[in-house]
Amino acid sequence: MIDSARLGQRFEELVKIDSLSGCERNVALELEKILTEMGAAVCFDSAADKVGGNCSNLVAKFKGTVDAEPIFLSGHMDTVGPGEGIKVRFADGIYKSDGTTVLGADDKSAIAIILEVMQVILDNHLEYPPVELIFTVCEEIGLLGAKHLDYSLIESKFGYILDSTDTRGIVTKAPAANKITIKIYGKAAHAGAAPEKGVNAILVTSKAISGLTLGRIDHETTCNLGTIKGGVATNIVPEFVEIQGEARSHDPEKLEAVTQGIVNAFYTAAEEFSPDSRTQSPRIEAVIETDFPHTHICEDHKVIKLARKAAANLGTSMESRTIGGGADANIFFSKGIVAGVLGTGMTDVHTLNESIALADMENCARLILEILKVHASGETY
Ligand SMILES: [Zn+2]
Question: 85 and 163 share a domain?
Fold first, then answer.
């Protein structure tokens, strides 16, 4: 029933509309038009101001034909750069860009698949449950759309986000992450005339970092210091360094321990320079922010069982996956909405080699269609 040519054509149309993070308006207006013509009730929340973009999150509701629990399908409208003026190439069943931009299959493939599934249902008058489509903005720059989504618009308690590669896997576990910003205040002095009057913030920073273990801490915990800024000139003892990093873990206690370990290393290094470092230089300021909370979906949750049942009906399987990254699903999960993340086949995302096979998109569309059919049928899964 999935119309491969129509799916491919829609995918091409969508990737040709530029939609870098914060500039999703043009693609959103196109989606609003398509979905309204399909009979959905379309609205936008008011996330645009909060994310500093030109577009808000789009929510479209299809009433359904059966009295079943509502279910949502979601993807993000923004792409990473370089992503303007994308020229699509199609050969041997594979979509690629011309090599000067990303393709934007992350995440336009999701949107094309979801539209195709809804079109098939409507054209064939299939029974289907109430479906909410959630197309977010600014996913790629810190899940900002999901963080500022108006959750009062969403009735569904479970559903699927199409935003990974693997068409045979569903993400059930994703870590929580903290963002860490540490400011090291030393004291400036002329490096030649009076170096003893200075406190070298770079030296304090390096002593703190040299004692740390970074990278993979264990099978479910990682940390990284990713940027460092500081110093003004070679003849000035540097008075300021700012360093930014992150920690991730599937275990909240480990996340806390690793985060504190990093911060404490800086306080300890400062104290070694001066016992009064809480009041005089070198002085440390640390800010820890929750970047995203963790996702942990039980194996017997209906979102997993429904995907497994649908895959089995299609003669394939669905494996649970653990990932190391965050996605809109993490934010939804923290709002009490359980989202299984499914793959569309997109590969080498965030690179100029990004590609996707039309066959993978078709398979994902078949799976989503089957998920909606099984859910609408009322049978247990
Ligand atoms: Zn994505």
Answer: yes
Q: Return the structure tokens found at 9.
A: 């054509």
Cα gap 244→112, rounded to integer Å: 37
pLDDT, tens digit, for every residue of 312-355? 999 999 999 988 888 899 999 999 999 999 999 999 999 999 99
Q: Give the residue numbers spanning the domain of 255.
A: 176-292
Number of domains in the chain: 2
Q: What is the distance in A from the centroid of ligand 1 to the CA of 128?
A: 27
Same domain? For 83 and 199 the reply is no
Neighbouring residues of 293: CB distance < 8 A, sequence distance ≥ 6: 176, 330, 331, 333, 334
Is the domain of 33 the same as that of 126? yes
3-class SS at 265? helix
**Rounded to the nearest whole angstrom, what is the distance from the C-alpha of residue 167 to the centroid of ligand 1?**
14
Question: Ligand 1 centroid to 155 CA: how many Å?
Answer: 23
Per-residue pLDDT tens digits for 240-256: 999 999 999 999 999 99
**Residues identified as active-site:** 78, 139
135 and 188 inside one domain? no
